[in-house]
Amino acid sequence: MGLLKKSKTEKELTKFILENKESLYRIAYSYVKNQEDALDIVQESIHKALIHINTLENQISLKSWFYKIIVNTSLDYLRKYKRLSVVDATVMEALANGSEDEYHDLDLQAAIDHLPDKYKTIILLRYFEDMKIEEIAKIVDENVNTIKTRLYRALKLLKVELDEDLTIEEDKHGKKF
Amino acid sequence: MVRNFKSLKKKYDEIVIPKELDTVVQEALKKRRIKQLTAKWSAGVAAAALLFTTSVNVSPAMAQALSEVPIVGEVVKVITVKQFEEEDDLLSADIKVPAVTGLENKNLEDSLNEDYLEEGKTLYKEFEAIMELVNEGESDHYAISSDFEVKTDNEQILVLERYVSRIAGSSSTSLQYDTIDKKNEILLSLPMLFKDDSYIQVISENIKHQMLEQMKSDTDKVYWVEDAGLDNFDDFFKAIKAEQQFYINNNGKLVISFDEYEVAPGYMGTVEFIIPTEVLREVLVSNEYIH
Q1: pLDDT at B241 over 90
Q2: From the CA of B247, how many Å to the nearest CA of chain A?
Q3: Which of A45, B51, B68, B112 has a Cα-to-Cα distance from A134 of 20 to 30 A?
Q4: B 42-71: CB under 8 A from A
Q5: Is the CB of B36 inside 8 Å of chain A's CB atoms?
Q6: Residue range B75-91, pLDDT digits in tens
Q7: Which residues numbered 156-185 in B keep a CB inside 8 Å of some CB on A?
Q8: Residues of chain B contacting A160 with CB distance shorter than 8 Å
Q9: What is the fold, at CATH topology level, of the domain defined by B43-187?
Q10: Which range, of A130-139, B40-49, B215-224, averages the lowest pLDDT?
């Protein structure tokens, strides 16, 4: 009986893609930093999603499922074309210990760009795409605690302090005024 | 020290969206492939097809349908002569075969009914062949269903819509219409309604206009039509086919229909356009059917 449901899922998927295409493009762009490759990634992700639509099960939302595809396709792309600039611990340390007075947005942007992928993905999804820790955990296939640990670690590497606008988890008491 | 994440988020939101994105997304949605299954033919398939034919001829359900179930109209009727169902975890088939009865023109009646039965058998064979692939583990899910509906039934016209839906990973639906003039007992074709070929352009232009209007008023709708902001798209709707699927509705209006993926992304499903009669006035042979 699950067969006829599939065409409904496909319609939902198409609707999701059309509604979120800009967000999907931004994620891809954040990894590859150029238009042509980002468009390629969006296209390839849509193909993958349509081909594997029957692997979409109820336990994961359409959103998490598709974001997982776009993140993985972006990472594959970087690996395949070796555009990944490898940053070792020393460089990371240097970034983290840079002169504090001269910090501005550009440095932070560069620091994020140079974060290892496993941290970058989480920063991207949590703070730029406003996703919940639970959702991110599903996208990167890790448990919630691992994501929290990585997030703290990433923020520490970036020397970012938490304040009211920047919380690890969503405010459980609703919106602040 | 608090670094300014907010302005970074702003910068992220301001990543320029290239105008090509729309086209790339539409193309990707269009070019997605229905998993192509190559049917393997074998003795088993032939035997099954034979069984199907026999069961159509002797089915008590069919005899009953023929004798007592008038589905529509008073004279010309459409009945189900055969419903073939099969379903398990991976496979499902539900093929309904219609038959038209009550026409005095038996040539027309027989040829329509033969076509319907032939189509039912072909679908069943297709299903049988895929069933083998699935049983051999070479393919996973497959569902096929066909059904029909009387779209129009008035003193003059009977329109029978048949649809076939296939689901293999993704789905596709196709529609067919038979528009029968009950008074003169003839099957209408699109070209015979018009004086000459100019109807193709007249109708196509009107449809393009309707597509653009609909997209303007409802952003959820997308048609593959020029001037709608899709750049470099290589498969725009240009014109209807001379024998494009059509029917005449109960108000005497011409309705042009397109299969899934013919002029719009799959999520739009099959689409149809009612052509205003004023637009057709110059090209119609008469107002007998369309008014």
Answers
A1: yes
A2: 26
A3: A45
A4: none
A5: no
A6: 456 666 666 666 666 77
A7: 165, 167, 169-171
A8: 2-3, 5
A9: Heat Shock Protein 90 (3.30.565)
A10: B40-49
pLDDT the model gives residue B206: 96
In the predicted model, is pLDDT for residue B66 greater than 70?
no
Give the pLDDT confidence of A10-21 residue by residue, as tens digits.
778 888 998 999
B191-280: CATH number: 3.90.640.20
Structure tokens at A75: 């990472």
Q: Is B229 on the interface with A (CB under 8 A)?
A: no
Residue B214 — very low, low, confident or very high, per pLDDT cuts 50/70/90?
Answer: very high
Could you give the CA distance from residue B142 to residue B132 in angstroms, rounded to a whole number? 11
DSSP code, position A126: I
pLDDT at B69: 35
Quick check: A10 and B18 CB within 8 A? no
Which structure tokens are listed for B97?
Answer: 């075969």
Whole-model pTM: value is 0.52
In this complex, the residue of A39, A46, A161 whose CB is nearest that of residue B29 is A46
Domains A7-81 and A89-157 share a fold: no
Which class is domain A89-157?
mainly alpha
**Hunting for tokens 């988890």 — which residue is that?**
A169
Q: Choose, out of A1, A3, A24, A66, the residue to mutate when testing the contact with B (most B CBs < 10 Å).
A: A3
On the question of pLDDT at A174 being above 60, the answer is no
Indicate the SS3 state at residue A138: helix
Picking from A164, A135, A133, the residue whose alpha carbon sits closest to that of residue A148 is A133
**A3 closest CB neighbour out of B5, B27, B92:** B92
**Burial class (CB within 10 angstroms; exposed 0-12, middle 13-18, buried 19+) of B79:** buried
- Helix axes of A2-32 and B5-13: crossing angle, nearest 10 degrees: 120
pLDDT surpasses 50 at A3: no
Give the domain ranges of chain B: 43-187, 191-280
Residue among B17, B185, B205 at smallest CA distance from B105: B185
Q: What is the CATH number of domain A7-81?
A: 1.10.1740.10
Tell the residue number behind the tokens 């140079």, with chain if given: A114
Nearest 5°: the CA angle A25, B13, A156 is: 100
